[in-house]
Design brief:
With 622 residues, the protein is mostly beta strands. It folds into 4 domains: 149 residues, no CATH class; 135 residues, no CATH class; 98 residues, Sandwich (Immunoglobulin-like); 163 residues, Lipoxygenase-1 (Sandwich). Helix content is 3%, strand content 26%. It is built from 2 helices and 30 strands. The strands form 8 sheets. Strands 20, 21, 24, 27, 28, 29 and 30 form a 7-stranded antiparallel β-sheet that branches. A 5-stranded antiparallel β-sheet has the order 22-23-19-25-26. Strands 8-11-10-9 form a 4-stranded antiparallel β-sheet, with no helix packed on it. It is flat. The relative contact order is 0.07.
Length: 622
């Protein structure tokens, strides 16, 4: 088994193939377009290393006099004996003249670099060596454009290319045909019943023919899991895309990012993303420290969402391979594919379990509803939502308790009221009178239009921390009349509201902007400021003031644009905390893009090499 190589340029190879090959000329063997190696030509064609055109052996299109060139393994540009540096330290240039790797060059020269793949794979399939060009100063530029083979399990089985450079496009045991007889480019040929997972675990696949009732026929063809060969760093492969491309349980390892930035992420075969029950999670960019200083950002763990798991009889595609209850051949009494919808902050959401549970024993079954904590709840050590359960819709009226679990006999109605935006995972277990337990899980997204900033801190109950929002162009002080904070921006109560100077009309939710909660000394309560209808181009600055107390506190800020979490600031080790009254943490500047229904905004954190900036609240500077 040869060494595992990272597939660096699948997309580039496809694009290059399309550009360089063109169509076959009438009556001749040459093909219009340029090529560097056989991988740039159609199947059955070779690359002329002199004029860099594709030709068909035997057609007379290989040489200037009409003769064919030697086999691709014998001329420079194709393989282990192609004039690579070896022990001489030399690499052939365009004219096949050895050129000293370390010597000078003439502006405009181009040469092939040493091929770093295994022997006998250069010029096969998509594989080719890198090239480099001479710069204007007479020195060689970097080697770029290499395409190395993936291991056999990394063969992408529906792209029409030979990715592992074994001479077979979309064939082999990993593409459903160990005999290499499947038609080229046919992703459905062969036996895919157990799933082609590449480097991905087979534990979520159900083998064909096991546990099926007699006479059961399941004609759904599972989607093969397509994983690239294992790589030390997805950044080095240019794959910073929120995906676990090599299916090693890590997303975008080695990729840089802006501290506090968030992105959707998915841990599982990339082609399973948003298939079946699979839903993206989110990962936050945390600070990468060196010698005690923040030198860059790196992506943290991918959390939340729904990843592939073993398929069970529940009318959902749990393993996200495109087949519902594949090979189980069942008629489940529960429908886990039920659309649970979204929720709004400070608005009751009621779920009726009879909508997805079909057995008649719903009033006698035991229902257990469990909701995960939200984005600030771990910091607060308390839930920022209230829940209530009942047998009927009337029984869930009124205010529930701040808890994560409600359970009881016949409790098929569930109500929740969220204080904070974000994504929450809801699980329900139903233990029927037959003794069987059936369960479903969903991700509930709590969304609101416009711009929303949420604050929580670990010392609620003993330290008073306040959220401030300033609009650039109207604000002259962090505590002035034009700043939204506890003194003049509360949506209800005293003091009176006085933010009309920002020019935004009221909505059904209240004033704009507005502070929904001002928490002084109540443990576990967040603060949030909302602006339902920002205008495109409006710019805002977020500040957090330490108002009173003496304990060290660690505030966390979540920024939502159009219901989507865009940034999280304050997660250790980004902010070490502060403990002095009168100090203000200058968090970030946010520029809105588009109408109020947009979810696009540009967020720039206030950041130094030693962490976030904490200064005096009495001076409005940036």
């Amino acid at each position: 088994m040869f060494k595992k190589f990272v597939f660096l340029a699948i997309v580039s190879a496809v694009a290059l193939f399309a550009v360089s090959c063109g169509g076959e000329e009438e009556g001749g063997g040459a093909v219009a377009g340029n090529c560097e190696s056989r991988s740039d030509c159609p199947l059955g064609y070779e690359c002329n290393p002199v004029n860099h055109t594709c030709y068909k052996p035997g057609s007379g299109g290989g040489g200037e006099g009409g003769e064919d060139l030697p086999d691709s393994g014998d001329y420079p540009d194709s393989g282990a004996d192609s004039g690579q540096s070896g022990d001489t330290g030399e690499v052939p240039n365009e004219d096949d003249t050895p050129t000293d790797v370390t010597g000078g060059c003439n502006d405009g020269d181009s040469q092939k670099c040493e091929y770093e793949g295994p022997a006998n794979t250069e010029g096969v399939g998509v594989c080719k060596a890198a090239r480099r060009s001479c710069k204007a100063d007479g020195t060689w530029g970097p080697c770029t454009g290499a395409v190395l083979p993936v291991i056999e399990s990394g063969e992408l089985c529906s792209d029409g290319l030979d990715n592992d450079c074994d001479g077979l496009a979309d064939k082999g045991g990993y593409c459903g045909d160990a005999g290499d007889s499947a038609p080229d480019g046919d992703p459905d040929s062969g036996n895919h019943g157990s799933g082609n997972t590449g480097g991905y675990s087979d534990q979520y696949e159900i083998p064909q023919g096991e546990g099926n009732p007699e006479g059961c026929v399941d004609e759904c063809v599972p989607i093969q899991a397509e994983c690239l060969s294992e790589m030390a760093s997805e950044a080095a492969a240019g794959l910073c895309d929120g995906l676990d491309n090599d299916c090693d349980g890590q997303v975008d390892e080695g990729c840089t990012c802006s501290p506090g930035q968030t992105q959707p992420c998915f841990m599982g075969p990339p082609n399973y993303r948003n298939v079946g029950a699979c839903v993206d999670g989110v990962q936050t960019c945390v600070v990468n420290l060196k010698d005690g200083k923040a030198v860059s950002g790196k992506w943290g763990e991918c959390v939340g969402g729904m990843m592939p798991k073993i398929d069970v009889c529940d009318n959902a595609d749990n393993n996200c391979n495109g087949c519902v209850d594949d090979q189980l051949c069942c008629r489940p009494p529960i429908d886990c594919a039920y659309d649970i919808g979204t929720a709004l902050p400070f608005t009751d959401k009621i779920i009726d379990g009879s909508e997805f549970y079909g057995l008649t024993d719903g009033d006698q079954a035991t229902w257990t509803w469990t909701l995960t904590k939200g984005p600030c709840d771990i910091v607060l050590n308390k839930t920022s939502f209230s829940v209530k359960g009942g047998k009927t819709e009337a029984e869930v009226s009124g205010t529930g308790a701040a808890t994560t679990v409600v359970s009881g006999v016949g409790m098929k109605f569930f109500k929740v009221n969220f204080q904070l935006s974000g994504s929450y995972t809801l699980n329900v277990k139903i233990t029927g009178t037959d003794g069987q337990t059936r369960e479903c899980s969903w991700v509930i997204r709590v969304v609101s239009e416009g711009f929303r900033v949420e604050l929580c801190w670990d010392t609620t109950g003993s330290v008073d921390v306040d959220l401030h929002l300033a609009k650039v162009g109207t604000t002259t002080a962090w505590t002035g009349s034009n700043v939204c904070y506890y003194s003049n921006c509360k949506n209800s109560g005293s003091p009176s509201y006085s933010m009309s100077s920002w020019g935004y009309p009221n909505t059904a939710s209240g004033h704009n902007p507005r502070l929904d909660i001002d928490n002084i000394h109540t443990a576990g309560i967040p603060e949030n400021i909302n602006l339902d209808n920002p205008n495109s181009g409006d710019t805002f600055r977020i500040g957090v003031r330490y108002f009173s107390g003496s304990a060290l506190t660690h505030p966390v800020i979540n920024v939502y644009c159009g219901g989507t979490l865009k940034s999280t600031f304050g997660v250790e080790p980004q902010v070490g905390g502060f403990s002095s009254a009168g100090k203000l943490w200058k968090v970030a500047e946010v520029k809105w893009d588009g109408g109020y229904t947009s979810d696009t905004c540009e967020i720039t954190p206030k950041f130094s090499d030693s962490g976030y900036v904490i200064g005096s609240y009495s001076t409005y500077d940036w």
